Automatic annotation (TrEMBL), chain B:
Entry's Gene Ontology BP terms: 'de novo' pyrimidine nucleobase biosynthetic process; 'de novo' UMP biosynthetic process; amino acid metabolic process
Organism: Pelosinus fermentans B4
Enzyme class: transferase
Protein name, UniProt field: Aspartate carbamoyltransferase
Pathway per the UniProt entry: Pyrimidine metabolism; UMP biosynthesis via de novo pathway; (S)-dihydroorotate from bicarbonate: step 2/3
Positions contributing to L-aspartate binding: 91, 174, 228
HAMAP family: Asp_carb_tr (MF_00001)
Family, per entry: Belongs to the aspartate/ornithine carbamoyltransferase superfamily. ATCase family.
Catalytic activity: carbamoyl phosphate + L-aspartate = N-carbamoyl-L-aspartate + phosphate + H(+)
Subunit structure comment from the entry: Heterododecamer (2C3:3R2) of six catalytic PyrB chains organized as two trimers (C3), and six regulatory PyrI chains organized as three dimers (R2).
Database matches in InterPro entries: Asp/Orn_carbamoyltranf_P-bd, Asp/Orn_carbamoylTrfase, Asp/Orn_carbamoylTrfase_sf, Asp_carbamoyltransf, Asp_carbamoyltransf_Asp/Orn-bd
Pfam family, one: OTCace_N
The entry's keywords: Pyrimidine biosynthesis, Transferase
Gene name per UniProt: pyrB
C-alpha cells in the first residue's frame, strides 16, 4: 500500500525541510521525501500548490467522553480534529467520571481505537475526582498510557498538593499541565476585568489572578525540578513570568490558543455566550504580549482548548453559561488568517507550534515527517477562503466566537497512518 | 436629521449605550407632554388602546414595575405582571421558553427585569415583541437613566456642561451605568466616588472621573446622585461596616455643602436612610427624590408610547 503526495511544498521543522517535493508513504509510515519520486504502484495525490506538513497535534482537547456525550464524544471529537488537520489530540480528564484511574485511561484509548478517526492521547487527573484533595493514581495511569497529568477545568489552589503532584509526576517523565487562575481572585468573574467588563457590569476575572497562579506554578516546578506546562496562557504578566523562568532554566513550557491570540474582550460586548471562556478573552495589550511571547519562544505551542457544549447549555444568560467553545475546526484557519497572512509568523513557525512543539512537550511520536515516522499528515491550502459555519461542524459543540467569519487557509486533506481520514473538508472513514 | 424623523417605533430599549442623542432627546421631550397627563384629574388617554404589555420581572421590584404598569394603563394599554416566583421559571423553564410563551400570547411589549447582565439583549435576540429593559443585573436600567436626566434637565434647564456626582456602589449599579452613558452622550461631566472595592477598575476609560474621596466628587457639583448601598456587599466583605460607610461616604448636609448651593440631590430608591444618605438631605430643599418617581412614570409613558406608535398624537388611538 503506497501513497505518493506529489509536488506539494513539504515543510518539516524537525528536518529543516521546506521545499517543493514528493512524499512517499508506505505501510502507514513516511518512506521518503525527494524530487520526482517514482509513482509506480502508488496512489498519487496531486499536492501542487498545497503545503504538506506533519499532522497537527492538539494537546488540549475536551472530548467529553465518558459521561458528557451531549457535548461531544470520541467519534464526533476526532472527526472534528480530522476536519481541522489534526492527527493527534490529547484529551483532558474533566469528564464524568473524571479520568483519575488507569481503567478509565485504558477505556478511552480502547474506545478511540474503535471509534476514533485520529490518534487520541489521554491526560490523567492530578487529584482524585479533580477535587484538589488527594493524589490520583498518577503512576498507574501513566503506565496505562496517560501522557500528561492535569486538573484542567479549574485551578488547583492547594499549594501542597500541587507540589506533590509535580514531584510525583516528574518520576515518570511526564509534564503536569496547569490551568492557572487563582480561584479566590477569580471569584464569580465571568469575563476579563477591563473597560468592557466595567461598563457591562459583569464581574471580571482579573489578569492578576492568572499571573499569581502562574508564578506559584513556576516556583513549585523550579523547587521540585519538575516539568510544568501552562495551559492557555492569556495574560501579559504570565508571558513575562514564563519568559523569566525559561531564562533561569526552569522546565516550563506553555501554550496559547487561537482565540486568545486573535480576539479581545470586545467579543463579549453583545453578551455572546459563544465567546465566554476561561481564562477569558482579554484586552488588546494582552493579545500583543501573547503574540510576542509566541514569536520569541516563550510560548511553545498553539493548542485549541476545544471545549464543546450542548446548544441548551450555552443558550442561557451569559453569567450562567459554561465557559469554552469548539476550536478544532477553526484553529488552522484562524491562525493562518491572523498570524500567517498578516506576515507576523512564517508557515514553518506555525507548523512548529501546532505540531512539532506539542508532540515534543507530550513526548509522543508525532510532529515529524522523518523517514520511518507514522504517516500523520496535514495537507493545507493556505490561500483557500472559506466562511465559518458552525452548523456544519463535525463537533457537537456548535459554539464559536469565529462563526460567520471569513478565513483564509484550511486543511484540505488529513492523513492518519497513511490513510486519508479527511479530503476536501469531508471526513472519510 | 431633524428630530421629526426620529422614530423609536418597534425599537428595543436595551440601554443608553446603544441609544443616539436624538433618540434620547425625543424621549425626554415626549415625557414632558406625558407629565401633563399624570396631573390630570382623569388620567386616561386611549392612545395605546388594544396594545398589550407584559411586565416580566425575574427580580423583586416595586417602583419600577408599578411605574411601568401605571404608565401602560394611563395610556390605555392592557398590562399584565408576571413575576418570576409566580411563573414557570420556578419550575426550571429556560428564559427562551418563557419568552416564547409570552410572545405566543400576542404581546406587543415585554418590559423585563432580570438579575443577569445581558438578559434584555438575549430577549431581544430571541423574541419578537419590543423589549424594554427594566434592569439587567448590574448592566443597565435605561428608563432610570432617562428619568434621572429628565429630572436634572427639568430643574437645571440643560444637561450639557452639568457636573454630576454619582456616589456609592458603582460596581453593582445598573443605575450608575445608564446614567454614565446617558450623561456623557448629553455632554455632562460625570464624577464617580465610592469605596475602591465597589469601583470597577478601568471605568475611567469611558470618560468619567473617578475619586477615592467623596468630597472631591462633590466639589462644585450641580447634581449629586446617591446610590443605594446594599447590606449584602458588607457581608461579602467589600466594606467593613455600615457605620464606617456612613461616616466616610454617606451624603450629609456638610458634604452636600461642598456642591453648588443649588445642587440637586437624587436617589433611585429605595433609600437606606442614615447609611448612604442622611434623612435631612433626603427630605431637604435640594432633594428631588419624590419628583424622580413622578418623572419615572412620565418617562415610561413616553417610552411605551414611542416604541408602540413612533410618536403620533398622544390623545388619539394608535
Amino acid at each position: 500500500m503506497k501513497l505518493l503526495l506529489k509536488g506539494g511544498t513539504i515543510i518539516d521543522p524537525t528536518q529543516n525541510y521546506n521545499q517543493v517535493a514528493d512524499l512517499l508513504i508506505e505501510n502507514g509510515l513516511v518512506s521518503k521525501i525527494g524530487e520526482n519520486l517514482s509513482t509506480t504502484g502508488a496512489e498519487v495525490f496531486d499536492a501542487q500548490g498545497l503545503v504538506i506538513a506533519p499532522g497537527f497535534v492538539d494537546m488540549h482537547v475536551h472530548l467529553r467522553e465518558p459521561g458528557l456525550e451531549a457535548k461531544e464524544d470520541i467519534a464526533s471529537g476526532t472527526k472534528a480534529a480530522a476536519a481541522g488537520g489534526f492527527t493527534t489530540i490529547a484529551c483532558m480528564p474533566n469528564t464524568k467520571p473524571v479520568v483519575d484511574q488507569a481503567i478509565i485511561v485504558s477505556g478511552i484509548l480502547h474506545r478511540a481505537q474503535l471509534e476514533g478517526v485520529v490518534n487520541v492521547k489521554v491526560i490523567g487527573a492530578l487529584s482524585k475526582g479533580q477535587q484538589g484533595k488527594e493524589l490520583a493514581e498518577i503512576g498507574d495511569m501513566i503506565l496505562s498510557g496517560a501522557v500528561a497529568i492535569s486538573d484542567d477545568g479549574s485551578s488547583l489552589d492547594n499549594n501542597r498538593l500541587f507540589k506533590i503532584g509535580l514531584e510525583y509526576t516528574s518520576m515518570f517523565g511526564c509534564p503536569v499541565i496547569s490551568h492557572a487562575e487563582d480561584e479566590s481572585l477569580v471569584d464569580e468573574g465571568v469575563m476579563h476585568e477591563g473597560a468592557v467588563s466595567a461598563m457591562l457590569g459583569m464581574k471580571g476575572r482579573p489578569s492578576v489572578a492568572e499571573d499569581i497562579a502562574v508564578a506559584r506554578d513556576i516556583m513549585l516546578a523550579e523547587y521540585t525540578d519538575s516539568q510544568l506546562h501552562i495551559a492557555h496562557v492569556s495574560s501579559k504578566g504570565a508571558v513575562e513570568l514564563i519568559r523569566q523562568a525559561k531564562k533561569r532554566g526552569v522546565k516550563v513550557t506553555a501554550e496559547a490558543t487561537p482565540h486568545h491570540l486573535t480576539l479581545t474582550d470586545e467579543a463579549v460586548k453583545t453578551f455572546n455566550t459563544a465567546a465566554k471562556v476561561n481564562p477569558p478573552l482579554r484586552s488588546a495589550d494582552h493579545v500583543a504580549a501573547l503574540l510576542e511571547g509566541l514569536k520569541d519562544g516563550t510560548l511553545d505551542a498553539i493548542a485549541t482548548d476545544h471545549a464543546p457544549h450542548a446548544f441548551e447549555e450555552k443558550d442561557i444568560e451569559f453569567r450562567q453559561a459554561p465557559p469554552g467553545f469548539a476550536g478544532l475546526e477553526t484553529a488552522l484557519g484562524v491562525i493562518l488568517t491572523e498570524l500567517y497572512h498578516t506576515g507576523k509568523f512564517t508557515l514553518v513557525e506555525i507548523i512548529e507550534k501546532m505540531s512539532t512543539a506539542p508532540a515534543s512537550i507530550l513526548n509522543i511520536e508525532a510532529g515529524s515527517l522523518k523517514a520511518g515516522a507514522p504517516a500523520d499528515i496535514a495537507i493545507i491550502d493556505t490561500e483557500l477562503e472559506w466562511t465559518v459555519d458552525s452548523s456544519a461542524f463535525y463537533t457537537k459543540g456548535k459554539h464559536t466566537p469565529f462563526d460567520k467569519k471569513i478565513l483564509k487557509g484550511k486543511a484540505v486533506a488529513t492523513i492518519v497512518s497513511g490513510k486519508f481520514v479527511m479530503r476536501k473538508g469531508k471526513v472519510c472513514i | 436629521m431633524s428630530k421629526r424623523q426620529i422614530s423609536l417605533r418597534g425599537k428595543d430599549i436595551l440601554g443608553l449605550e446603544m441609544m443616539t442623542v436624538p433618540e434620547i432627546e425625543v424621549i425626554l421631550e415626549t415625557a414632558c407632554q406625558m407629565k401633563g397627563i399624570i396631573d390630570r384629574d382623569i388620567k386616561k388617554v386611549p392612545t395605546l388602546r388594544g396594545k398589550s404589555i407584559v411586565n416580566l420581572f425575574f427580580e423583586a421590584s416595586t417602583r419600577t414595575r408599578t411605574s411601568f404598569e401605571l404608565a401602560g394603563k394611563y395610556l390605555g394599554a392592557d398590562v399584565v405582571n408576571i413575576t418570576a416566583s409566580a411563573s414557570s421559571v420556578t419550575k426550571g423553564e429556560s428564559l427562551r421558553d418563557t419568552l416564547y410563551t409570552v410572545e405566543a400570547m400576542g404581546v406587543d411589549v415585554i418590559v423585563m427585569r432580570h438579575e443577569a447582565e445581558g438578559a434584555a439583549q438575549y430577549a431581544a435576540n430571541v423574541a419578537s415583541p419590543v423589549i424594554i429593559n427594566a434592569g439587567d443585573g448590574a448592566h443597565e436600567h435605561p428608563t432610570q437613566g432617562l428619568l434621572d436626566m429628565f429630572t436634572m434637565k427639568e430643574v437645571k434647564g440643560k444637561l450639557d456642561g452639568l457636573k454630576v456626582a454619582i456616589v456609592g456602589d458603582i460596581f453593582h449599579s445598573r443605575v450608575a451605568r445608564s446614567n454614565i452613558w446617558g450623561l456623557l452622550k448629553m455632554g455632562a461631566e460625570v464624577h464617580l466616588a465610592g469605596p475602591k472595592t465597589l469601583m470597577p477598575y478601568y471605568i475611567q476609560e469611558v470618560g468619567v472621573h473617578v475619586h477615592n474621596r467623596v468630597e472631591e466628587a462633590l466639589e462644585g457639583a450641580d447634581v449629586v446622585n446617591v446610590l443605594r448601598i446594599q447590606r449584602e456587599r458588607q457581608h461579602k466583605g467589600l466594606f467593613p461596616s455600615a457605620r464606617e460607610y456612613a461616616r466616610i461616604f454617606g451624603i450629609n448636609q456638610a458634604r452636600l455643602d461642598l456642591a453648588k448651593p443649588d445642587a440637586l440631590i437624587m436617589h433611585p430608591g429605595p433609600m437606606n436612610r442614615g447609611l448612604e444618605i442622611s434623612p435631612d438631605v433626603a427630605y431637604g430643599d435640594q432633594s428631588v427624590i419624590q419628583e424622580q418617581v413622578k418623572n419615572g412614570l412620565a418617562i415610561r409613558m413616553a417610552a411605551l408610547f414611542l416604541v408602540l406608535t413612533g410618536g403620533k398624537n398622544i390623545e388619539t388611538t394608535a
